[in-house]
């Protein structure tokens, strides 16, 4: 029989060799290591069972595994088949953990999202859900288990984040149901269990006279020329701040008078067309000699290889005296939406130009050029209207002919 000393001192030779213990157990020694094996017969056939690798599996442990195999053989059970089944169960469980399913869902679904959205969702999962539920088999997770995790987030005062994590977890559970790895989505049971979050709207100026004052302040901005151009373009295109600062020259078509933003930059992951008014074109032409040789229209002051900072526009607004509860870079979207609706422009055209998610996926796929003729007309009108406000024109409250605008 083998001893611990003999096993420890066994050295590799030119050819693999075996050192026998008892009852079929032996140590196979070769150039790559030492392996425990057991020879046995089942159903009249000679077979070999792999027990483990030394020193991870000691001599004592190897003998225990051999004895367990002998007990199975006494019951007409093939230990090799039992081992394969157990290995499959463990592997399947690993593939069906919440983390494994969530990462699979994210990899498949994130292709339709903007890069920033994909990164944010993954970060929420990794920091706030995986540490507690990541290694759990997803079908075994119940609503109370998820609630405990969400309450941890709420305990930090991050109520909105808790709601978002519930939403993202729900998407993962529904994907698990669709792929046969869970029976139901327990996140639905938690509606009303979390602290309600009051919807916060981005601060925005919507009074026409105040808009005129803001536009005059922007035109008189004494800071960076690049920043002033970004401020001047923002109300004319009313895209999201991240879409504005990541704007690239390759996306601008001066002949067609449009800015085509690729899907990976958009919140909804779809190509978005921004018709460019005469005023928008003039702003772009004015900055082109300065940044046109680079990638970004509004590059960082530190490196032309990066876009301007996400705080640049808001910081400029603060320098002009507008507090964060008065106006933000995102507020240009609310400004446009409010005034365009008040002047009777079609809701559908406004929503498409804002690139909102309002679309019927059952009837048809998203068409990034939908309502484009009306949107071009609307954007040109909007630019002229802003010029009137900036010039201090008398503000008249009226409704445009809705019949003409909705044609």
From TrEMBL:
This is Integrase. Belongs to the 'phage' integrase family. GO terms for molecular function: DNA binding. InterPro entries: CB, DNA_brk_join_enz, Integrase-like_cat_sf, Integrase_catalytic, Integrase_DNA-bd_sf, Integrase_DNA_bind_dom, Integrase_recombinase_N, Phage_int_M. Residues 201-383 form the Tyr recombinase domain. It comes from Nitrosomonas oligotropha. Residues 96-177 form the Core-binding (CB) domain. The keyword rRNA-binding does not apply. One of its GO terms (biological process) is DNA integration. It comes from the Bacteria.
């Amino acid at each position: 029989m083998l001893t611990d000393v003999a096993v420890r001192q066994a050295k590799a030779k030119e050819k693999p060799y075996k050192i026998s213990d008892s009852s079929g157990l032996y140590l196979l020694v070769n150039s790559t290591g030492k392996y425990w094996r057991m020879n046995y017969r089942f159903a009249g056939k000679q077979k070999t069972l792999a027990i483990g690798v030394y020193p991870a599996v000691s001599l004592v442990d190897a003998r225990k595994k051999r004895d367990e195999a002998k007990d199975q053989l006494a019951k007409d059970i093939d230990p090799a088949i039992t081992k394969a089944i157990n290995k499959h169960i463990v592997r399947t469980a690993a593939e069906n953990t919440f983390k494994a399913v969530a990462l699979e869902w994210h990899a498949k679904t994130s292709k339709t999202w903007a890069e920033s959205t994909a990164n944010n969702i993954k970060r929420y999962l990794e920091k706030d859900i995986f540490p507690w539920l990541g290694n759990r088999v997803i079908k075994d997770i119940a609503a109370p288990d998820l609630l405990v995790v969400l309450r941890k987030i709420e305990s930090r005062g991050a109520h909105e984040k808790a709601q978002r994590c519930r939403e993202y977890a729900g998407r993962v559970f529904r994907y698990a149901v669709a792929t046969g790895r869970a029976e139901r989505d327990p996140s639905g049971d938690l509606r009303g269990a979390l602290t309600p979050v009051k919807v916060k709207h981005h601060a925005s100026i919507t009074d026409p006279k105040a808009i005129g004052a803001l536009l005059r302040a922007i035109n008189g901005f004494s800071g960076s020329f690049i920043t002033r151009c970004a401020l001047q373009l923002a109300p004319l295109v009313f895209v999201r701040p991240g879409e504005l600062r990541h704007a690239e020259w390759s996306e601008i078509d001066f002949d067609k008078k449009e800015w085509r933003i690729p899907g990976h930059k958009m919140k909804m992951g779809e190509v978005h067309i921004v018709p460019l008014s005469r005023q928008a074109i003039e702003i772009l032409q004015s900055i082109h000699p300065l940044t046109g040789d680079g990638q970004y229209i509004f590059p960082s002051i530190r490196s032309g290889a990066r876009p301007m900072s996400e705080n640049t526009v808001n910081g400029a607004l603060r320098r002009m005296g507008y507090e964060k509860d008065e106006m933000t870079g995102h507020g240009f979207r609310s400004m446009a939406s409010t005034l365009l609706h008040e002047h009777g422009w079609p809701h559908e055209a406004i929503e498409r130009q804002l690139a909102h998610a309002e679309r019927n996926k059952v009837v048809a796929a998203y068409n990034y050029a939908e309502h484009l003729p009306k949107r071009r007309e609307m954007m040109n009108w909007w630019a002229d209207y802003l010029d009137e406000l900036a010039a201090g024109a008398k503000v008249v409250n009226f409704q445009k002919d809705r019949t003409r605008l909705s044609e």
